[in-house]
Amino acid sequence: VQLQASGGGLVQAGDSLRLSCAASGRTIRSYSMAWFRQAPGKEREFVAAVSRGGSGTSYRDSVKGRFTVSRDNAKNTVSLQMNSLKPEDTAVYYCAASNTAWSTVHLDYTMDYWGKGTQVTVSS
User: Fold this and answer.
1) Tens digit of pLDDT for each residue in 64-99?
2) Within 10 A of 118 (CB to CB), how many other CB atoms are there?
3) Which of 23, 61, 91, 120 is the S-S candidate for 37 at Cβ 3.0 to 4.6 Å?
4) Mean pLDDT value of segment 22-46
5) How are beta strands 113-114 and 91-98 bridged, if at all?
6) Per-residue model confidence (pLDDT) at position 75
7) How far is CA 18 from CA 14, 79, 121, in A?
8) What 3-state class would DSSP assign to 28?
9) Contact call for residues 48 and 5 (beta carbons, < 8 A)
10) CA–CA distance, 57 with 80 (Å, rounded to integer)
């Protein structure tokens, strides 16, 4: 599976962005899909994930209520709607696909495929 994230940019605090991840080469129906991010000088961290069928979601605490992850298996895409952005959300955002258990979707080493990141910068 090849993954390509897009939609990043420079915004002000309080603004919104919608990230998209387009998959090719294989259907993503059999994969849980996740978003991770990495800020300069920090380790990569889990942001959000959506289950194979789309009914299950998971978020890190700091983005709950602000971010919404979704998927469209027919279009082979995953999205991350980010509202009320904060400067601490500044990072490179990556989408990833996992064929392992849902309970491990927050662990980056369980991801099977990664896309190139897209930069999100939130100014104060």
Assistant:
1) 999 999 999 999 999 999 999 999 999 999 999 999
2) 22
3) 91
4) 97
5) antiparallel
6) 97
7) 13, 7, 13
8) coil
9) no
10) 11
